[in-house]
Design goal:
Helix content is 78%, strand content 0%. By secondary structure, it is mostly helical. The longest helix is centred in the last third of the chain and has 26 residues. The mean pLDDT is 89.
Length: 218
């Protein structure tokens, strides 16, 4: 219990320092970024009664993605994106193992799936003509996997209807928003001017934390 609180305080404290540096566009944010998922993983390990190997590996892959994305260049972006893509797939399996297929409600899930697809198309449309050839297609595939993760989180919520499931779904939404904002920051012809690093990282940190906390509470 004590270690759980210690690592939660450390995670929240480092996240605050990181977001302050993101707001100020200070390069010190690169020093704290690799610590975020490691501290969140430590919080999970000292909080969960039953461990999920899928969640543990997803957080490790997210840590790797954070480290890779510190570097500039397309190859680093692709490598970091691959790590996060694998993390999203693991989150999908995490949710899928916890839901009953009978919980699937087409009248609710299918319209929301259409909304996610439309949102992904809208964000990718903003990049056409400004992103390098082939990048928009790759990013759309990535966003669709993220959207699938969101839909499984929604079905998990429908199946359980617990505070933890609610938090996990809100976290999935935040993760989706973070990726959309990141792509706009990287490739949109009109640059995001309102503290872009802060917007990306605040939604990302919130997403990962709420997913992890939701799994702990569930």
């Amino acid at each position: 219990m004590i270690l759980q609180i210690i690592f939660l305080i450390l995670f929240l404290g480092v996240s605050c320092f990181h977001l302050i540096d993101c707001w100020n566009d200070n390069d010190r944010r690169f020093r704290t970024k690799p610590l975020l998922m490691l501290l969140l993983l430590a919080f999970y390990l000292f909080s969960a009664k039953l461990y999920s190997l899928l969640l543990i590996i997803a957080l490790i892959l997210s840590f790797l993605g954070d480290v890779l994305l510190i570097r500039d260049g397309e190859k680093w972006l692709m490598a970091g994106g691959a790590s996060f893509l694998a993390a999203h797939i693991l989150y999908i399996f995490l949710y899928a193992r916890r839901i009953d297929p009978s919980a699937f409600i087409p009248s609710l899930v299918i319209p929301i799936a259409v909304v996610y697809c439309a949102a992904a198309l809208f964000f990718i449309w903003q990049l056409l003509g400004s992103a390098p050839k082939g990048i928009p297609a790759a990013l759309y595939i990535y966003l669709m996997v993220n959207a699938a993760m969101n839909l499984f989180a929604l079905m998990h919520l429908i199946a359980y209807r617990t505070p933890g499931a609610v938090l996990a779904y809100i976290g999935a939404i935040c993760f989706f928003l973070s990726d959309c904002i990141l792509f706009l920051v990287l490739y949109a012809p009109k640059k995001v001017r309102f503290h872009p690093h802060f917007l990306v990282m605040s939604t990302y940190i919130a997403g990962q934390f709420l997913i992890t906390l939701g799994m702990v509470l569930s």
